């Protein structure tokens, strides 16, 4: 095993004192602490790390910065891990992925030979006929083109989120970001500095900026020291800002936490992605970006090759060649695509090192070793025109090729913020414009590459930020930089192909051109059709050559062609990061603990948890009937604390309630309750409840559990306009409540509440009273929702459990038990009482629901009154009715459809079932349903389509199903 | 996430607010035509302009009015509804006016 | 009618918070459930002058609080809304007296915060960091000084957060819907668990 390492100070990221063992594909390897999987493997001369997506070609690292998909590997618990980002840990087990057999001997590599039978858009074009064939092919293709495997037995680990609040957020801690952070902090701003690397410095941690190669490290040390010592700067290392959202809301992932940073100002100094050259076999392991070679040397102290050729379109290639030579790599040749070559100092420096330079030339083809797993030579040809090369070439043996075709700004966050990316076809430079307020760009992301200019550009962005913050008013000068770094046409198509534009998706130059020939001119359509840019690297390298190829093929400029939309996330994020701690609030009533003790089956009711019934869900039907019979024949108690409660007080209370609800309330006597229906401005019934007049100027109104918050908002919004003298308070949680119902209810109440006369004369149906139970003040209303003698008792919540206990105790001699909400739904159904939002929908007006009696059309106004008039005057289309079917027939479920005609399969739908349950009291299946107007007459039989297409016939019957004259609830 | 300046509570995440629709003048519900009423209830101009909207700050139960540009989504101004609705509204007379013009 | 006293039988009040969890917490943040302590709220055009007439100090602006004596916090939630929270549960008589004497006043409406809201107290240096995991408002001391109030969302439920001090000790007071208070308590324990 060779540990091919260079001496310090190279190896900024690794700790040579600590060696770690790990395995890759079952083989044992060693690396240093701080190594990535990829750097440790390369140190051991293992370049092959993955197989490509489509052709299963051998691939090795391209960027050494997590910007490509060539290093996706499998960890035990996690697929698709970037080997050039993931640090090794002791005994880490790493596998390759997307192969058949082994990474070294992938049986699917022969797919590469079939390449010409798999043209662009192959799947769309090959598998759509005959219909349904895709379903057969899909599993096979997914397997072949799959990535890693998910560990289904994984143990979730703690992920969370936290807010950060700063004046200025700086994204990227390269020279621009460091300078910006320092300047902003010096001017008094609190600064958040975010970088995805373990060490500050960005390009200063690997790039050679000068001939001598001394500047970067000195500057990095100086800037890092100042930043880390500044009390106003918070540094987040190993952290990725994964998106930009309105008003500088920045999700930043670090480890298992997602920070939600809120910054008043944001400076994006995200740098630039080095771009590759398109030529045949440009994916052979050993063909890398120049920056990747420099990262291997500076960050990981790895001598990356014996012999390297540099292919460049800018001066940075020369600096890379100098760095290689100084670290003992032979560099026989710099292939410069430009006609003019580098500046004189650099030309002189490389000449001194004995490096030959060939101008106006390119690598036309890379030649792999016999086992295809490593570069063995490059074929160099002269450039004769745009993308054209001379016939003859020379072969230069080498085990590494470094490419420097230019840079593309890391524009993702900026474009998410609405910035426009434009490209100058004359000098191949990018610029970003139309940034929103409070967002700034600096450094190479801003097209500034010369180091001193980069520092000044960072400071300029900081000044812009602190000026916006009002911390200073001095205006610095705009930074200019005319260093040209992009070669305009680094694309050399080869007749034999494999000249990759997109490594993730194995797309070659001709695939992009062919897509345009098939009519996909728009770059967005080219993307969808060819899948270019849709792989894990998201167009970091493919966007620019694609734009260039599409531009040329469609006779447009690159700016006109543009690039595809950048959307968050910037790098893949885990669902666990998005989920965090999953705050899903739920509400308990004060009696919650008692329900659990009594074995209640708890169900969600909106945000609340309520007992459905008491007992085992396996016995549901039986339990509900038993609880219902208890209420019908003796007495039961239900926790109705979830009912909404609203207090309306003030001189205009009656006037206000009269305007909100459909009934008349001005003349409602004190001590009486009245049914309150709320319609919205469209005339649709949206809520109902009971309004108690406690005093001349005081109403207590109940609302539905799920509707009360909206009712409260409606009330307060209307009064923001009406300006009546009234106070509206949502007291839902302040009151807990129970309903004691059944023929013996009065007896139970009389045992605990001594200051109220419960006789029918003194406390008649629909009356309101106040009293005390054990000194606790309670509000009492006589109600009939379940159709028996019943009292709702509303009490202050902190005292609710005590009253519950007291009532349970008092009821024990009558065998009183609690009943659940499902039982209550059955009981009220037997009485034909609707539940708003169960028996109504977004179109239900009072007429359809037979609520005309609860609408007062003599009063001047209520919300929606005009709409109610209009819809009720129109021809009606449906009606809510009660229905009954034999108990032996399949019981319809809520939501099943009512049909116009039983005999036709595809006849018109006239309505739907809203409530349905078996009633032991009636001895039949009963329910409510919307039916067509011609189906509403009593005795009409109408068809319902139940599960499996079966049709059952139900009969319209008169409501209520039980106690037609309401004798039990009113006169008992 | 967008932020909005609540006149009572200051700058807050938009998730703390509930949208309450455009501020519209209700036509006289007794005398207007069905069409005028339907326009009021159902139709929105949906053009590029500054709209006046109701917003509710849920944690404090506070309604206010925001002026927002429909294209840029920029919130230009927020204020208490009492600045716009200054008089008690009556419905017992035929001519009901829910909204007072701003002074 | 309208004899309904929200301050009645304080000894029977029962918080639903299951405090058994707190014992195992190693957090340096102190969590305290004061839900059964007395409190009262008043709203209306006359609320400010009513409280002043009763000898209580009132904050000059909305979303600020003041301390009366050592441990009665007077919160001003809007121009016309005030809550009084009895931190050490020693002002029951005063609060009950205020509730009763407000009854005949036409432009003062008593509020129901005694029973609608749970009341928690948090202290310890890391409290603001704990809040930053559940709340989108910056509650750190330099931007949220003693006397500040934020009516905001905490762990996705509405809450009133106030920073106050008494007897030389600073704390955060949190009032939130009683019905979801068990949920909130657990969410806040979880958020604070990392601050040992």
Question: What is the secondary structure topology, with strand pairs?
Answer:
The complex is a heterotrimer of chains A (972), B (103) and C (196).
Chain A: E1 15-24, E2 27-33, H1 37-43, E3 50-51, E4 58-59, E5 72-75, E6 78-82, E7 92-95, H2 122-126, H3 133-144, E8 160-171, H4 175-186, E9 191-194, H5 215-229, E10 233-236, E11 239-241, E12 249-254, E13 257-268, E14 272-274, E15 287-289, H6 290-298, E16 307-312, H7 316-326, E17 330-336, H8 344-352, E18 356-359, E19 361-368, E20 375-385, E21 388-397, E22 400-404, E23 407-409, H9 412-416, E24 420-424, E25 429-433, E26 439-441, H10 451-468, E27 500-502, E28 507-508, H11 509-517, H12 523-530, H13 543-553, H14 558-561, H15 575-579, H16 592-597, E29 600-605, E30 608-614, H17 620-633, E31 636-639, E32 644-649, H18 653-660, E33 673-679, E34 685-695, E35 698-703, H19 708-722, E36 727-730, E37 735-741, H20 745-750, E38 768-773, E39 776-783, E40 790-796, H21 800-811, E41 817-818, H22 821-830, H23 865-873, E42 878-885, E43 897-899, E44 909-919, E45 924-932, E46 941-945, E47 951-957, H24 967-970
Parallel strand pairs in A: 1-7, 8-9, 8-13, 9-10, 13-26, 15-22, 16-17, 16-22, 17-18, 31-41
Antiparallel strand pairs in A: 1-2, 3-4, 5-6, 5-7, 11-12, 12-13, 14-23, 19-20, 20-21, 24-25, 27-28, 29-30, 31-37, 32-35, 32-36, 33-34, 34-35, 37-40, 38-39, 39-40, 42-45, 42-47, 43-44, 43-46, 44-45, 46-47
Chain B: E1 3-6, E2 10-13, E3 17-22, H1 34-42, E4 50-57, E5 62-69, E6 75-79
Antiparallel strand pairs in B: 1-2, 3-4, 4-5, 5-6
Chain C: E1 30-33, E2 39-43, H1 47-53, E3 64-68, E4 72-78, E5 81-86, H2 92-102, E6 109-111, H3 113-116, E7 117-123, H4 127-132, E8 149-154, E9 157-166, E10 169-177, H5 181-192
Antiparallel strand pairs in C: 1-7, 2-5, 2-6, 3-4, 4-5, 7-10, 8-9, 9-10
């Amino acid at each position: 095993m060779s540990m091919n390492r260079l001496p310090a100070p190279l190896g900024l990221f690794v700790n040579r004192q600590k060696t770690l063992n790990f395995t890759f594909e079952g083989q044992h390897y060693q690396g240093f602490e701080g190594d990535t999987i990829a750097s440790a493997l390369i140190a051991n001369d293992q370049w092959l790390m993955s197989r490509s997506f489509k052709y299963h070609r051998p691939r090795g690292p391209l960027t050494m910065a997590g910007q490509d998909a060539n290093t996706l590997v499998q960890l035990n618990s996690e697929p698709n891990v970037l080997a050039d980002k993931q640090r090794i840990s002791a005994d880490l087990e790493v596998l390759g992925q997307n192969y058949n057999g082994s990474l070294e001997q992938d049986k699917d590599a022969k797919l590469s030979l079939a390449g010409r039978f798999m043209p662009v858009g192959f799947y769309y074009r090959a598998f759509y006929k005959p219909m349904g064939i895709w379903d057969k092919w899909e599993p096979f293709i997914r397997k072949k083109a799959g990535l890693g495997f998910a560990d289904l037995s994984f143990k979730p680990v703690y992920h969370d989120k936290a807010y950060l609040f700063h004046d200025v957020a700086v994204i990227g801690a390269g020279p621009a970001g460091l300078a910006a952070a320092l300047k902003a902090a010096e001017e008094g701003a609190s600064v958040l500095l975010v970088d995805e690397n373990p060490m500050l410095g960005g390009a200063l941690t690997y790039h050679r900026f000068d001939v001598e190669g001394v500047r970067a490290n000195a500057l990095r040390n100086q800037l890092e020291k100042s930043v880390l010592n500044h009390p106003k700067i918070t540094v987040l290392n190993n952290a990725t800002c994964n998106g930009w959202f309105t008003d500088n809301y920045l999700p930043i992932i670090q480890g298992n936490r997602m920070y939600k940073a809120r910054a008043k100002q944001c400076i994006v100094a995200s740098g630039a992605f080095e771009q590759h050259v398109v030529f045949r076999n440009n994916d052979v392991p050993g063909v890398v970006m120049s920056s990747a070679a420099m990262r291997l040397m500076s960050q990981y102290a790895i001598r990356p090759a014996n012999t390297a050729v540099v292919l460049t379109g800018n001066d940075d290639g020369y600096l890379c060649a100098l760095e290689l030579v100084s670290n003992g790599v032979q560099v026989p040749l710099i292939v410069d695509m430009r006609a003019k070559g580098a500046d004189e100092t650099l030309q002189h420096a490389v000449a001194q090192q004995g490096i030959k330079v060939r101008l106006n030339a390119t690598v036309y083809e890379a030649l792999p070793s016999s086992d295809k797993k490593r570069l063995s030579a490059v074929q160099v040809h002269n450039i004769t025109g745009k993308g054209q090369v001379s016939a003859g070439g020379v072969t230069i043996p080498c085990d590494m090729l470094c490419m420097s075709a230019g840079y593309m700004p890391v524009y993702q966050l900026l474009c998410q913020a609405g910035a426009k990316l434009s490209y100058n076809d004359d000098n191949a430079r990018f610029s970003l414009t139309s940034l929103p307020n409070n967002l700034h760009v600096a450094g190479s992301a801003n097209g500034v590459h010369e180091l001193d200019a980069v520092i000044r550009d960072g400071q300029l962005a900081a000044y812009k930020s602190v000026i916006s913050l009002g911390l200073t008013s001095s205006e610095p000068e705009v930074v200019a930089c005319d260093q040209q770094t992009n070669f305009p046409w680094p694309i050399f198509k080869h007749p034999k192909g494999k000249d990759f534009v997109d490594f993730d998706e194995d797309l070659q130059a001709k695939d992009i051109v062919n897509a345009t020939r098939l009519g996909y001119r728009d770059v967005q359509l080219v993307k969808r059709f060819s899948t270019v840019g849709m792989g894990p690297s998201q167009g970091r390298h493919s966007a620019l050559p694609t734009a260039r190829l599409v531009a040329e093929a469609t006779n447009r400029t690159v700016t006109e062609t543009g690039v595809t939309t950048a959307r968050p996330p910037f790098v893949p994020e885990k669902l666990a990061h998005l989920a965090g701690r999953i705050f899903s609030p739920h509400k308990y009533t004060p009696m919650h603990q008692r329900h659990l003790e009594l074995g209640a089956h708890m169900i969600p009711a909106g945000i609340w948890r309520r007992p459905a019934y008491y007992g085992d869900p396996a016995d549901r039907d039986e339990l509900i009937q038993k609880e219902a019979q208890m209420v019908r024949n003796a007495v039961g108690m239900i926790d109705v604390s979830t009912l909404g409660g609203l207090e309306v007080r003030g001189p205009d209370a009656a006037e206000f309630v009269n305007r909100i609800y459909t009934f008349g309330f001005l003349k409602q006597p004190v001590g009486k309750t009245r049914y309150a229906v709320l319609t919205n401005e469209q005339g649709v019934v949206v809520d109902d409840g009971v309004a108690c007049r406690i005093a001349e100027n005081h109403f207590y109104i109940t609302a539905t559990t799920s509707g009360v918050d909206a009712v409260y908002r409606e009330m307060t919004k209307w009064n923001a306009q009406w300006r009546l003298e009234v106070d509206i308070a949502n007291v839902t949680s302040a009151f807990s409540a129970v309903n004691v119902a059944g023929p013996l209810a009065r007896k139970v109440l009389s045992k605990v509440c001594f200051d109220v006369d419960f006789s029918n004369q003194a406390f008649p149906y629909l009356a309101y009273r106040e009293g005390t139970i054990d000194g606790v003040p309670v509000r009492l209303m006589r109600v009939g929702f379940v159709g028996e003698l019943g009292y709702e008792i509303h009490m202050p919540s902190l005292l609710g459990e005590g009253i519950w206990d007291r009532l349970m105790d008092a009821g024990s001699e009558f065998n009183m038990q609690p009943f659940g909400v499902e039982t209550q739904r059955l009981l009220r159904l037997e009485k034909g009482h609707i539940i708003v939002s169960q028996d109504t929908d977004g179109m239900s007006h009072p007429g359809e629901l037979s609520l005309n009696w609860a609408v007062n059309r003599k009063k001047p106004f209520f919300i929606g009154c005009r709409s109610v008039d209009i819809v009720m005057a129109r021809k009606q289309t449906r009606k809510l009715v009660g229905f009954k079917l034999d108990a032996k027939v399949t019981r319809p479920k809520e939501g099943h459809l009512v049909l116009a005609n039983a005999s036709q399969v595809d006849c018109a739908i006239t309505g739907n079932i809203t409530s349905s349950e078996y009633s032991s009291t009636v001895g039949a299946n009963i329910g409510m349903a919307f039916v067509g107007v011609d189906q509403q007459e009593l005795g009409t039989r109408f068809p319902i389509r139940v599960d499996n297409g079966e049709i059952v016939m139900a009969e319209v019957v008169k409501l209520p199903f039980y106690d037609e004259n309401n004798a039990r609830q009113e006169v008992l | 996430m967008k932020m909005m300046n609540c006149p009572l509570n200051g700058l807050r995440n938009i998730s703390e607010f509930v949208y309450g629709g455009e501020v519209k003048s209700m036509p006289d519900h007794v005398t207007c035509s069905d069409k005028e009423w339907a326009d009021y209830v159902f139709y929105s101009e949906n053009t590029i302009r500054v709209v006046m909207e109701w917003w509710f700050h849920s944690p404090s139960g506070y309604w206010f009015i925001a002026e927002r540009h429909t294209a840029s989504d920029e919130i230009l101004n927020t204020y208490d509804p009492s600045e716009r609705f200054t008089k008690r509204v009556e419905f017992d007379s035929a001519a009901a006016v829910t909204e007072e013009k701003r002074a | 009618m309208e004899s309904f006293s929200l301050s009645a039988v304080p000894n029977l009040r029962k918080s639903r918070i299951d405090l058994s969890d707190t014992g195992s917490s190693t957090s340096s943040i102190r969590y305290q459930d004061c839900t059964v302590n007395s409190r009262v709220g008043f709203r209306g055009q006359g609320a400010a002058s009513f409280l002043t007439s009763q000898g209580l100090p009132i904050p000059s602006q909305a979303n600020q609080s003041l301390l009366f004596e050592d441990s009665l916090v007077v919160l001003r939630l809007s121009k016309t809304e005030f809550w009084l929270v009895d931190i050490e549960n020693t002002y029951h008589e005063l609060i009950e007296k205020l509730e009763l004497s407000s009854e005949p006043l036409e432009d003062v409406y008593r509020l129901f915060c005694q029973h609608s809201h749970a009341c928690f107290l948090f202290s310890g240096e890391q409290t603001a960091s704990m809040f930053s995991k559940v709340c989108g408002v910056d509650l750190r001391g330099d931007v949220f000084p003693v006397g500040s109030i934020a009516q905001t969302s905490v762990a996705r439920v509405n809450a009133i957060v106030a920073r106050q001090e008494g007897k030389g000790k600073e704390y955060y007071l949190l009032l939130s819907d009683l019905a979801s208070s068990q949920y909130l308590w657990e969410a806040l324990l979880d958020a604070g668990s990392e601050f040992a």
